[in-house]
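Note to self: keep these together.
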Amino acid sequence: MATTKAREDIKNDLKTLKEDLKVGAREETARLKEKAAAAQSRAKAKASEAEAVLREKSEELRERARGYYDTARVRGREYYDDAAERLDEAQRYVTERVQERPVQSTAIALGVGVVIGLLLAGRRR
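Structure:
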């Protein structure tokens, strides 16, 4: 009889232990889910912050690039205008020299033409 009572007590203790383990497992699962949800919300907040910082930095870079582009465009235009002005000066200079000495200019042009013609004819052989 004592052994039957002991068996019943052990069985009841095991059932109680089993139920306690189930309850503990459910509680721990719920606690872990809460922690996971909190971690997920923190991660989303950090991701949003990072996205905002990246957008701000990209806008800064875009503005800086626009500034560089505008500077380059202005400088390019200055260089173009300077080159065009120098070309006009050179053209005026050549025109004046040709008008001062038309025969000499014609002879030089003829000589250059002959040399170029000989060079081109030599390549065809």
